[in-house]
Amino acid sequence: MFTVRLCVPVPAAGPLMGDMRVWLDRWRAVPAAFHCREASVGVEIEIGFNKEDDAEACAEQFHGLMLVTD
């Protein structure tokens, strides 16, 4: 799985998730997993994809870090 990790301040999390939903629909990407948790910087969001291209595009669009995970 290819995971994109984003860390954002709490006030930015809601709007960011809305923007991500719009982007996912336009890109026609289907996340395989989604996790959201508190972090020292605010909120850590992880979106898992089965397709590397989807993860790369998401990481680029939202300035996230792409990881290869199990």
Model description:
The chain is an alpha+beta fold and 70 residues long. It has one domain: 2-Layer Sandwich (Alpha-Beta Plaits), CATH 3.30.70. 41% of the residues lie in helices and 37% in strands. The chain contains two helices and four strands. The protein has a four-stranded antiparallel beta sheet. Strand 2 and strand 3 form a beta hairpin. The termini are close together.
At a glance:
With 70 residues, this protein is an alpha+beta fold. It has a single domain, classed as 2-Layer Sandwich (Alpha-Beta Plaits), CATH 3.30.70. The protein is 41% helix and 37% strand.
Number of domains: 1
Q: What is the succession of H and E elements?
A: EHEEHE
CATH class: Alpha Beta
Question: What is the β-strand count?
Answer: 4
Strand order in the sheet with the most strands: 2-3-1-4
- Percent strand equals 35-45%
Main sheet record: 4 strands, antiparallel
What is the end-to-end distance?
6 Å
Estimate the global geometry from the Cα principal axes: globular
Give start-end ranges of low-pLDDT stretches.
none
Structural class, by secondary structure, is: alpha+beta
What's the number of helices?
Answer: 2
Mean pLDDT: 94
C-alpha-based Rg, rounded:
11 Å
Helix content: 40-55%
CATH topology: Alpha-Beta Plaits
**Which architecture would the CATH scheme give at its second level?**
2-Layer Sandwich
